Amino acid sequence: MPNLIEIQQKSYQWFLEEGLHEVFREISPIQDFTGNLVLQFVDYSLGEPKYDVEECKERDTNYAAPLRVKVRLINKETGEVKEQEVFMGDFPLMTEKGTFIINGAERVIVSQLVRSPGVYFGKAVDTSGKTVYTASIIPNRGAWLEMEFDVNNVLYVRIDHTRKIPVTVFLKAMGLGNNAELLERYNHHEAIQNTLERDSTQSQEEALVEIYKRLRPGEPPTVDSARTLFETLFFDPRRYDLAAVGRYKLNKKLDLNFPPRSIPAHVDENGNEVPAVEAVKTLTQEDIDAVVRYLLGLLDGKGEVDDIDHLGNRRLKRVGELLQNQFRIGLSRLERVVRERMTIQDLDVITPQALINIRPVVAAIKEFFGSSQLSQFMDQTNPLAELTHKRRLSAVGPGGLSRERAGFEVRDVHHSHYGRMCPIETPEGPNIGLIGSLTTYARINEYGFIDTPYRRVVDGKVTDEIVYLTADEEDKYIIAQANETFDPETRLFDNKKVSARYKEAILVVPREEVHFMDVSPKQLVSVATALIPFLEHDDANRALMGSNMQRQAVPLLTTEAPLVGTGMEYKAAIDSGVVILAKHDGIVEKVASEEIIVRTDEGRIDRYHLQKFKRSNQGTCINQRPIVEVGQRVTAGEVIADGPSTDHGELALGKNVLVAFMPWEGFNYEDAILISEKLVMDDTFTS
Hints:
The chain is of the alpha+beta class. The two termini are 32 Å apart.
């Protein structure tokens, strides 16, 4: 099972190592309007934070490190080069627990589930009862492109929700040929003939002007301005970006092979030089051609339409990417300022420092952490609440859905959620189904899609090979349940016929037809749900309430691990970060309420500081207490101090008490319960 908060940590790590570089590469170099002055961002470094985490909380300040950027200014007229290190503001750092400290309070950045960039084919039923097919090309940023047939099988295209134009006009503007060549290209397809009848343009120039008239009505159309507009809309990487994931989805759906990522020139293992590969992140003629062909195929009954609620078509924007987008906004504002200053200032005395105003960048970051819908005050009631908050998946937020507009389909449990998003843990109320929780074994791949692990099955034999599959890959395979029994010697399934899943169907198939097998029965639920014993005997609605209410348990005075657990208690407590683990093997030298000292086997000394009676975000008590003794031997990774709601490193949210189900004078009518005086006297549930 992966570290339960790696969804946060890995993403932030990616941002520091690659995400920032990407943004600086996109914006650099900045040239003035004459092209004489060039400003390049060479490299960046993060300094040391001014205060540690504890001190930031006490001082009500941000846990942040100074970001310094090496900037080079080149004057092309004189050939003069000036280099300077420019301070670009304090950048919030993530703590070891996957949180940020903003103004002294712990905050969590929730991951957002959004529609992936790429191409989507759909079908709708017209008022006349005829099925019409549509296609949308959705970029990461830039103009949307939507194609649709009308009732008479004429294919139209809309650019960024404007009025529709015949698709042949667009194809000519893309340089795919004149009328005769288009007919030839699409095998004289009836739909293309119908469309050409509605199209009055004859050449690429006329087509460009026609599109310009639709997009900029009221401006005098010239061929040059039309061509410039068209090229900036779809071929300028600064204005139109499919992102690696969009290019990957287009390649996959349309059977193309443009590189989604840039690869620098290198030497392969055979010693051959491999030239550099540039990523293609804008639209190409081939893309448009393939989309039109696919649509014509749908009309002829070939190909299939997409389901937008399928998790293969929805991806996660995690901390790193959300931060990168904010930083990009800040830098593009800074770019405008730099350009203006280049024209105003005297060329002889100009320095990089004088050109750069860091205010827009600082403001963009501050706004994101302070007031974004996805930057939330951490729910710190108990360790489980913390952990769940960091693993939350939200479909609402900037660029996502709104509660009012979301219908039933979006909120529903989908077969592709299996092993990726918990079907049980979601809020009751207006957010139901829009906010979910990542399942126990799920992880996020490089494109932001959720993967889940399976064991490979070959000819009815279970192997130990673990394969991570995305939702759309999983749809190709037949998958057996985790508790399907097999012989430990021969690894063959015991039953000749095995219960298995294929897409949304549950089938009984011969064991030889099975491709994969679940890794664990708890792989389809989230951490909170996996803590419920005998979950399979519960009604789903009640399990939902249980999952949500465990997070509201207040830490008790004395903790007691559950007698009947599920085996998740240990993992949940450790990954939530409330317990202290030994960093190295060694012997305990000193134990006090506030400090534990361990002498390691290498002879070094490890000091562990314990938090005492701190106030949590929710006003509950955070208190750590040592559970080791002087002279005790500890191994790396062993729990040496308990936190709130933990008992010897196990999550302990309640108490083991005797419960009777019986009416008692009507005092326990509905939701009321009766407790004995002994529970009060013994402080059993005192928090």
